[in-house]
Design a protein that fits this description.
about 800 residues, mainly beta, Phage tail protein beta-alpha-beta fold, Maltoporin, Chain A, 2 domains, 7 helices
């Protein structure tokens, strides 16, 4: 016999009865205000739908109820107003209620949850976290692999939103990055790093905004994180569901969706001061506008300036590496368009840096000698359309997007090209990506399945020019075109009540071609095509749910990237020639064995650990050589073995302690010609792969009354030693530093005040040993951490 409390906490309203209305059609709901557990029970009963609410704290929050004729999704949103809850459909008539964005960032805050009375020994129900990046809507308990799911507190995270991906890398050691500057970096997951430079090769980390693909081979667009709901990091090759662009894993940003329930908004602003540097400012705003019960628009705007902290005395300039940014995200959502739910969106974001953020070892701290400024610009544009509709007990999803990155960089080439006068190298790059995917998913949370087809086309146009201080000579360049088409399928099945198997495969058809731009015939051999190639990639995993809070998993994942063309510059002493060189597909296989113990939300103890092994053949890498001209080649076979561990402890409800660490051992076992280090193959490590690293943090939070709360947090992270690249030319040490951050936030009603201190110890660690490709061979470039920076911020919801 199930008592009323269990009925509410493990809320499962009656399953959809035969002949119940379709999800897109309006239904009449008469549900009075009350505890969310009661409101959801009544709403599910009236809709004939399964509504699951397993979060005890969320279940007690007061809901305004709903009294209207609305489609089920709109009715759920109206009933969840101000609760901090979110409805996630895992089937057309099956809904899971989870903790969503913090009410502070959007609507009037709900009353704080009362603490459990003393002596209450009821066990905390398990939290069923959905790994939405899996595309199958799999629960974390049955997901066969390593994954990091972090929900973002809108008010708390607004103080770091302008930092983009850097804010995420500070939160999880699994995700690493180079540090050329905002809009210039490459991301790496768990040591799957090919090089420190960006070229035509596909990135090893796939980046997505919801279901929309952001990049192919350009640098990380570094999207502003304001008004994001959460992010997910899927670790290891995701070749089955995401294709060749996910050799190391996936970073998926999930923004808050347009809401038909209410008109509301928020704003944030901050000012910062950097030791040795200029002031920084940032501002962002969001407004959500319901057009009717079936349509809404959500608009986010942001702008800021990160003050520079490097001086160029020889040029008479101070704080040369300041970076200005601005942009927006606009999304319109339409429901009940036939049976479709459609989202149309646009993103643009611009970065403009006055100079590089590297220095030279022989110069005084935070200064750099140089002849000319070296500015950088990244303009990112994205248009997308997503559409979903139920098909029987499954859901059909289609996603189409067009992305464009325009990049412009200037490097100081004085003294490196044989000319005594001031000389500059200019590099222009335009990357255009067209992406489409159509997929059908169903099966529920226990036996989810998915099948679909995908297509991408990328055009990478890159040109170089040499010039003096005031003018440019004629430029020349290349355009690389990549096409990929694929079909894929993956399914999970419970072999036993506690044992689930997942298997999937993807067939990819790829083609690559190249042509020269303004290149004289005598300059060298330009152009060609790889022809059409076909490759399979797949995954196989097992998960044993050994107890209510313990799952053990083992999985095998396979991924690859198709081949293409690189180019290099050869000289006979008097003439230079640009030569096209074909590089081979690379192939990566990963094995994992790990366990998860405890829940993400509310558990007093959570522990995760994973052992992994990677075998990577024909590694593709974008490199620079003595000519400072980027080129792409295969560098050999790499092996990576390691251990990831994450621990979170809540000794009392107001305190959370966490620690995460990793150990990596990467080796280039079979280097291609010219990439052995000092002739000792076993000592050559993969680039930008720290041998060890970790993070520890502690947070404390409390509330006074129903409207005031305080949160304090301290975090320290260690980044172990690594190398800039492979081969003797790029065998340059970096990393091996410790940095810490402190933060405090006070919330009262709809107002929030924050204070953050980044790099509190003012560490000067070398984050990245590269700034100008012409000077790499001098081995004297380092990129220091941003000096200690204090920021005061304010947020306001309305």
């Amino acid at each position: 016999m199930i008592d009323a409390r269990s009925r509410r906490i493990h809320l499962a309203a009656a399953l959809l009865a035969a002949g119940a209305p379709a999800p897109g059609k309006a239904e009449t709901f008469r549900v009075p205000a009350g505890p969310l557990e009661d409101v959801m029970a009544a709403l599910g009963q009236q809709a004939g739908a399964t509504v699951i609410l397993a979060d005890r704290d969320l279940a007690r929050v007061r809901s305004p109820g709903v009294d209207a004729s609305l489609p089920l999704p709109a009715a759920l949103r109206r009933a969840l107003r101000g609760t901090g809850g979110e409805a996630v459909f895992i089937a057309p008539r099956t809904v899971r209620i989870t903790k969503g964005r913090m009410p502070e960032a959007a609507k009037p805050p709900a009353s704080p949850v009362a603490p459990e009375p003393a002596g209450n020994d009821d066990p905390e129900p398990p939290q069923d976290i959905l790994v939405t990046a899996s595309k199958q809507g799999m629960s974390l308990g049955t997901y066969p692999g390593s994954v990091k799911v972090v929900r973002i507190d809108g008010g708390w995270f607004s103080s770091q939103a302008a930092d983009g991906s850097s804010a995420i890398t500070r939160m999880t050691p699994l995700l690493g990055s180079t540090n050329l500057g905002n809009g210039r970096n490459k991301l790496f997951i768990r040591g799957i790093a090919d090089s420190s430079f960006s070229g035509p090769t596909q990135a090893t980390t796939g980046e997505y905004l919801g279901d929309v693909r952001l990049t192919y081979n350009g640098p990380d667009p570094d999207l502003n994180l304001y008004d994001m709901q959460k992010f997910e990091v899927l670790v290891g090759p995701q070749g089955t569901l995401y294709g060749p662009s996910a050799l190391g894993g996936i970073l998926r940003l999930v923004p808050n969706a347009p809401d038909m329930a209410d008109l509301y908004g928020s704003a944030s602003m901050g000012i910062g001061a950097t030791r040795h540097g200029a002031a920084s400012t940032d501002a962002a705003g969001m407004i959500n506008v319901p057009l009717n019960d079936h349509a809404a628009v959500r608009w986010v705007v942001f702008a800021g300036r990160a003050g520079g902290y490097i001086d160029a005395p020889t040029q008479g300039r101070n704080n040369i590496n300041d970076t200005a940014s601005y942009g927006q995200r606009l999304t319109a959502r339409f429901e009940n368009v036939g049976a479709w739910t459609i989202e149309v969106g646009n993103v643009f974001q611009n970065f403009k840096s006055g100079d590089g953020q590297y220095v030279l070892r022989q110069d005084p701290p935070f200064t750099r000698s140089g002849s000319v400024p070296q500015p950088f610009r990244n303009n990112y544009r994205l248009l997308f359309v997503t559409a979903r509709r139920p098909v029987g007990n499954a859901e059909l999803t289609t996603v189409t997007s067009l992305a464009r990155q325009d990049l412009s960089t200037v490097f100081d080439a004085t003294g490196y090209v044989g000319a005594p006068a001031v000389t500059r190298l200019g590099e222009e790059q335009q990357v255009t990506l067209i992406s489409h995917e159509t997929r059908l998913a169903g099966g529920g949370s226990r036996s989810p399945w998915i099948a679909g087809l995908a297509m991408t086309r990328s055009a990478n146009r890159r040109s170089l020019a040499i010039g003096g201080a005031d003018s440019w000579d004629r430029s020349a360049g290349l355009q690389d075109d990549q096409f990929e088409g694929a079909i894929f399928a993956q399914a999970s099945y419970p072999l036993l009540p506690s044992l689930t198997v997942t298997a999937g495969s993807r067939l990819t058809i790829a083609r690559s071609s190249r042509r020269g731009i303004n290149v004289e015939p005598e300059a060298g051999e330009i152009g060609g095509s790889t022809g059409t190639t076909q490759r399979f990639s797949g995954t196989l995993g097992l998960v044993w749910e050994a107890g209510p809070a313990l799952s053990i998993f083992a999985d095998y994942r396979h991924g690859y990237r198709p081949g293409g063309f690189g180019f290099t510059l050869q000289s006979n002493g008097t003439d230079d020639a640009v030569l096209t060189k074909r590089y081979l597909p690379d192939d990566l296989r990963m094995f994992e064995l790990g366990f998860r113990w405890g829940q993400y939300d509310g558990s007093p103890l959570r522990l995760e650990a994973t052992l992994f092994s990677v075998d990577w053949h024909n590694i593709q890498a974008d490199l620079v050589g003595p000519y400072a001209i980027p080129y792409t080649t295969n560098i050999g076979r790499g092996l990576v073995h390691g251990l990831d561990v994450e621990l979170a402890v809540r000794p009392v409800s107001s305190i959370t302690l966490s620690a995460s660490a990793f150990l990596n051992r990467s080796r280039l076992r079979e280097p291609a010609g010219g990439f052995a280090t000092n002739g000792i193959d076993a000592q050559a490590s993969l680039p930008n792969v720290p041998s060890r690293g970790g993070r520890i943090s502690a947070s404390w939070e409390t509330t006074w009354g129903s409207r005031t709360g305080l949160r304090l947090e301290a975090a320290f992270r260690y980044v172990g030693p690594s190398r800039l690249g492979v081969g003797s030319y790029l065998d340059i040490p970096q990393g091996d530093y410790l940095a810490g951050d402190l933060a405090a936030r006070l919330d009262h009603d709809r107002l929030g005040l924050s204070l953050t201190i980044a790099n509190v110890t003012d560490s000067h660690g070398n984050t990245f040993s590269y700034g100008n490709p012409f000077g790499v061979g001098q081995r004297d470039q380092i990129t220091p951490l941003r000096p200690r920076t204090i920021r005061i911020g304010m947020t306001r919801a309305f």
